[in-house]
C-alpha cells in the first residue's frame, strides 16, 4: 500500500484559506497572468463589488513574481497601488501581507466610501455625473431607494430642512455608487443592490 502523502506547509495554508475565505471571497490574479494594468482594473472592480456585498475580509492572490521579467512582481506592485488608492477612497479599510504572494484585504462599510466622496467634493469641486443627465432617467424603484438614502444621509448631518439639498445629494450618491457598478446587463438592478447595501448601514 503506497504511503499517504502529507501536504507541506503551503498545502496546509491553502486548506486553511479555503475554509476561511472560500472561492467567492478569493481573487487569484496569478493564474491568468495579467499585465499590471489588467490586474489593477480587475482588482478594483472585484473589491468594489465585495464592498457592496459587505464581504468584510477577502483574499487576493498576486503571486511573488518569480517568473516576471527582470524579477519585478508587476501584479503584486500594481495590487498594492490599488489597495492604497482604494483606502483613500473609502473602499479598503486595511490590507496585510498574508503570505509572500497574497494579501488579506479588509473592506470598509459602504458609508465610508460615500463619506470619502463627500470629502473629496468639498476639497475639489467634482462635476455632476454625465449620466443620467437627470434623475428622471432612472427607474421609479431606483429613484425611491436613492431618495431614501439621501434622506438618511442628510439627516445624519443634522439638517432639518432636507428639500433644498435633496436633488444634489441624490446626484452625489448616484455618482458615488455608480462607480461600484461596472457596465453590463442589469446594471440598474445592480445599482439598486448597492443602494440597499448602503441603506442597511443607516438602520
Task: Record keyword descriptors for this entry.
alpha+beta, Ribosomal Protein S8, Chain: A, domain 1, 4 strands, 50% helix, 11% strand, elongated
Topology (SSEs and partners):
Elements: H1 9-20, E1 26-28, H2 36-52, E2 57-61, H3 74-88, E3 92-99, E4 102-107, H4 110-123, H5 140-156, H6 166-178, H7 187-200
Parallel strand pairs: 1-2
Antiparallel strand pairs: 2-4, 3-4
Number of helices: 7
According to CATH, what is the class of the largest domain?
Answer: Alpha Beta
Largest sheet: 4 strands, mixed
Q: What string, H for helix and E for strand, traces the elements in order?
A: HEHEHEEHHHH
Return the average pLDDT rounded to an integer.
Answer: 83
Helix content: 40-55%
What ranges have pLDDT less than 50 throughout 5 or more consecutive residues? 1-9
CATH architecture of the largest domain: 2-Layer Sandwich
Q: Helices and strands: which structural class?
A: alpha+beta
> What percentage of the residues does DSSP assign to strands (E)?
5-15%
What's the CATH topology name of the largest domain? Ribosomal Protein S8, Chain: A, domain 1
Return the domain count.
2
Q: What is the count of β-strands? A: 4
Give the overall form. Answer: elongated
The termini sit apart by 60 Å
Largest sheet: spatial strand order? 1-2-4-3
Radius of gyration: 20 Å
Amino acid at each position: 500500500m503506497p504511503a499517504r502523502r502529507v501536504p507541506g506547509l503551503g498545502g496546509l495554508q491553502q486548506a486553511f484559506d479555503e475554509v476561511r475565505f472560500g472561492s467567492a471571497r478569493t481573487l487569484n490574479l496569478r493564474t491568468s497572468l495579467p499585465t499590471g494594468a489588467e490586474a489593477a482594473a480587475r482588482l478594483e472592480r472585484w473589491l468594489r463589488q465585495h464592498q457592496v456585498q459587505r464581504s468584510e475580509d477577502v483574499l487576493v492572490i498576486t503571486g511573488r513574481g518569480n517568473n516576471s521579467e527582470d524579477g519585478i512582481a508587476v501584479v503584486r506592485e500594481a495590487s498594492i497601488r490599488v489597495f492604497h488608492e482604494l483606502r483613500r477612497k473609502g473602499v479598503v479599510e486595511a490590507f496585510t501581507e498574508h503570505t509572500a504572494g497574497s494579501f488579506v484585504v479588509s473592506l470598509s462599510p459602504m458609508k465610508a466610501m460615500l463619506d470619502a466622496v463627500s470629502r473629496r467634493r468639498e476639497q475639489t469641486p467634482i462635476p455632476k455625473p454625465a449620466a443620467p443627465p437627470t434623475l428622471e432617467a432612472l427607474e421609479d424603484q431606483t429613484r425611491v431607494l436613492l431618495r431614501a438614502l439621501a434622506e438618511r444621509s442628510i439627516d445624519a448631518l443634522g439638517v432639518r430642512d432636507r428639500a433644498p439639498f435633496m436633488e444634489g445629494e441624490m446626484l452625489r450618491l448616484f455618482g458615488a455608487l455608480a462607480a461600484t457598478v461596472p457596465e453590463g446587463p442589469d446594471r440598474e438592478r445592480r445599482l439598486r443592490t448597492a443602494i440597499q447595501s448602503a441603506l442597511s448601514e443607516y438602520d
